[in-house]
Amino acid sequence: MGDTQTGRPRGRRREADRNDERLMQAAREVFAELGWDAPVSEIARRAGIGMGSLYRRYPSKEMLAQRMRIVGMEQLVTQARTALAEEPDPWAAFARFLRDALSDQGAGGPLLPLVGGRLPATDEIVAAAARLRAALDDLVDGAHRAGVLRADFASADVPLLLEHLTARIPVTDERATALHLRYLDLILAGLRTSTTDGPTALQSPAPDWAELSELWNAPKK
Amino acid sequence: MGDTQTGRPRGRRREADRNDERLMQAAREVFAELGWDAPVSEIARRAGIGMGSLYRRYPSKEMLAQRMRIVGMEQLVTQARTALAEEPDPWAAFARFLRDALSDQGAGGPLLPLVGGRLPATDEIVAAAARLRAALDDLVDGAHRAGVLRADFASADVPLLLEHLTARIPVTDERATALHLRYLDLILAGLRTSTTDGPTALQSPAPDWAELSELWNAPKK
DNA sequence: CGGCACCGGAGAGGTCGATTCCTCTTCTCG
DNA sequence: CGAGAAGAGGAATCGACCTCTCCGGTGCCG
């Protein structure tokens, strides 16, 4: 059945779908590298499609970015769930997720685009954020319960950490990713509970998800 | 004597000097928050001076930024030297320097501006970078020799770490600094040599100063 | 083979920012 | 005290650049 309902896309229609994928891909890369100010034309160029096609699919730059944010978050959710499912050890799952998120193997794009916050919050975005939160909670709670992750680390720290770790530095994508992973290793070392260290409590309070959503969404205009 | 030579600045001249300080201060803040694309007018606004005055002092935005980079680097050098002088314990000195650099107490500005690399390298910049390197080498070597800092951490990691840690997030300056310090604590925990952990070697190779200077300076045009 | 739906890309119109220019103020000095 | 220098301030200039629209060309279907 499945195929019968929508009909397997063929010809022109198939190209449109492929274009859409390339678009998301390109948008991820470009926004990650240049930030919100990246010219739309650059996205089109990298996707190998014309401006016309891009704007037919998404009515505005903002809509494009919104969609990309959702796709990005869903990708993180998938990576979190996969890590959880494939790694029996809670610490391994946690560490693997962070590494996957940074190297972003699935998408091929070198960086992940939590991107230009300060866009109006769509219902879809809110929903995606909720799913992301749930997934990260699972990951972090699991590690906490296993006693391998320092207790003063919250799940809301994860997106912020990723955002810090993906700081844009003007080197080749490959080297940038390598450096990101290097510093992730450092942070993982600091995150792991060690029975020897006592006085290493974090001094500033953890962020919570309310703070994150304020940070990600425009002040409800 | 001393005063006789230049004459203690008075009146208009004195105001000009004060303006210059405010300018550097404002530039630090604004560039730190908005990045290289920050409008010059915003810097002037925050410094409380007019565009005319700004442009009489610095012939272009680029020159202004260059000077600011030098001032920023010198400030880091001072902080490093101070930490080294005032903290007998190598680890304490190292940690204190990083904390100082992030909270930037001396300047009053909330963030430090390693800023928009990719500007042509002035001789002055090269010299300042060399002094910075020397200071950081001292700090890192001291900790290494004391055996309190993991061996695979290089002095060239310091500027990169700072750059990562100061990732711009759109919250109040105070909260941003708090979060930066939070993640610094995490990294410090990971940086400290612990005799218990073996398998935590960093996977990506350390950066070196040659890489940094490429990253900071425009490809000699 | 004709028509439709879609593609790519040049260009209109508008925003925004670096730099300049001109006016008004504050000192300095004879 | 008045003229002139040295600045201060900020509006106006001159482009650069970007988003989004419009249009001629092309491949696929019947």
Structural class estimated from helices and strands of chain A: mainly alpha
**Gyration radius of chain A, to the nearest Å?**
19 Å
Measured by DSSP, the beta-strand proportion of chain A falls in under 5%
Under the CATH scheme, which architecture of the domain at 65-216 in chain A would be assigned?
Orthogonal Bundle
Tell me about this structure.
Chains A, B: InterPro entries: Homeodomain-like_sf (IPR009057), HTH-type_TetR-like_transc_reg (IPR050109), HTH_TetR (IPR001647), Tet_transcr_reg_TetR-rel_C_sf (IPR036271), TetR_SbtR-like_C (IPR049445). The structure is a homodimer of 221-residue chains. With 221 residues, chain A is mainly α. In chain A, 65% of the residues lie in helices and 0% in strands. In chain A, helix 2 crosses helix 5, helix 5 packs parallel to helix 7 and helix 6 runs antiparallel to helix 9. The longest helix of chain A has 26 residues. Chain A is globular and about 55 Å long. At the A-B interface, helix 8 and helix 9 of A face helix 8 and helix 9 of B. The structure holds a DNA duplex (30 and 30 nucleotides).
